[in-house]
């Protein structure tokens, strides 16, 4: 028991640079307190003392803000940093060297009996606010970015971000096991240079629009050579003020305003011609 506790304390020092000494970790780290309480509750659960196990779990939740069902299976060197709002369901299985941050939910999506919660492989890092929902595997060494919602299996050594969760980085197995957990560890499941899939999609759309604009300009130039009058039919520019709408106008007013503007513009063009 003391060897296991020492291992848990060492894992805190390995993954939290704010930890200064053993006394501070023992007295001020709710993740460690929740883990110690879970070990006691889990022993009671397996021994058949279900109500007492749930009571110990509830008391730990009151004290730490972390809810771990006594039926959950947790491996060695498990670390919950900050911890407030973490929820771990009954049939969750967690491997060794796993790290969770605050607000993480390892939950289920079914009311049926049996396996309902995820299985996390060794070395998984789950960022703050992430939700992993369902009875699937999160591969060894995977990283779940903050606030991601994951509802399907994650490959080994992959990084997942977004809602719904998408794999944005696939890595091979680390070159050497001697690299250790510290060398492979990324706080909150993200790295500084990790791509944002939403920003990447917007960037691609902007590139496509720019390419189409250039092509239209070339076509317009060719048409102007064939018909000089075509160049006089310019598209009116859209200013910043034209796109601003007051907050107190209803949707119907906005649509009516747009329709009226279109009719006026049409009348004006007809008059000019």
Note down, in words, how this protein is organized:
With 273 residues, the protein is α/β, with parallel strands linked by helices. It has helices at 2-15, 22-28, 30-46, 50-64, 180-184, 197-226, 251-272, and strands at residues 67-68, 73-74, 79-80, 87-88, 93-94, 99-100, 105-107, 119-120, 125-126, 131-133, 137-138, 143-144, 149-150, 158-161, 166-170. Strands 3-6-9-12-14-15 form a six-stranded mixed beta sheet. Strands 1-4-7-10-13 form a five-stranded parallel beta sheet. Helix 3 (30-46) packs antiparallel against helix 4 (50-64). The radius of gyration is 28 Å and the shape is elongated. The termini are far apart. The relative contact order is 0.07.
Rg over C-alpha atoms, rounded to the nearest angstrom: 28 Å
Strand content: 5-15%
What does the average pLDDT come to? 78
Strands, total number: 15
Biggest beta-sheet profile: 6 strands, mixed
CATH superfamily of the largest domain: Hexapeptide repeat proteins
How far apart lie the N and C ends?
91 Å
Note the run of SSEs as H and E.
Answer: HHHHEEEEEEEEEEEEEEEHHH
Alpha-beta content class: alpha/beta
> What best-fitting shape do the alpha-carbon axes yield?
elongated
CATH architecture classification of the largest domain:
3 Solenoid
Adjacency order of strands in the biggest sheet: 3-6-9-12-14-15
- The third-level CATH topology of the largest domain is UDP N-Acetylglucosamine Acyltransferase, domain 1
Number of domains: 3
Under CATH at level 1, the class of the largest domain stands as Mainly Beta
Helix content: 40-55%
- Low-pLDDT regions: 175-183, 245-250, 260-273
């Amino acid at each position: 028991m003391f060897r296991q506790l020492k291992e848990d304390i060492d894992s805190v020092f390995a993954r939290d640079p704010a930890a200064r000494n053993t006394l501070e970790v023992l007295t001020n780290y709710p993740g460690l307190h929740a883990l110690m309480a879970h070990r006691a509750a889990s022993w009671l659960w397996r021994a058949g003392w279900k109500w007492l196990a749930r009571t110990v779990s509830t008391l730990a939740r009151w004290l730490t803000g972390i809810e771990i069902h006594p039926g959950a299976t947790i491996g060695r060197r498990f670390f919950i940093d900050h911890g407030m709002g973490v929820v771990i369901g009954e049939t969750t299985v967690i491997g060794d060297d796993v790290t969770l941050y605050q607000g993480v939910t390892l939950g289920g999506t079914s009311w049926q009996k049996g396996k309902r919660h995820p299985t996390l492989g060794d070395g998984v890092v789950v960022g703050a606010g992430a939700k992993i929902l369902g009875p699937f595997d999160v591969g060894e060494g995977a990283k779940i970015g903050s606030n991601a919602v994951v509802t399907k299996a994650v490959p080994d050594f992959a990084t997942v971000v977004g809602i719904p969760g998408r794999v944005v980085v696939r890595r091979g197995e680390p070159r050497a096991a001697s690299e250790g957990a510290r060398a492979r560890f990324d706080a909150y499941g993200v790295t500084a240079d990790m791509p944002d899939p939403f920003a990447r999609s917007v960037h691609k759309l902007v590139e496509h629009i720019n390419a189409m604009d250039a092509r239209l300009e070339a076509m317009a130039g060719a048409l102007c050579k064939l018909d000089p009058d075509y160049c006089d039919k310019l598209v009116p520019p859209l200013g910043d003020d034209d796109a601003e709408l007051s907050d107190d106008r209803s949707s119907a007013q906005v649509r009516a305003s747009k329709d009226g503007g279109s009719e006026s513009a049409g009348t004006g063009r007809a008059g000019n011609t």
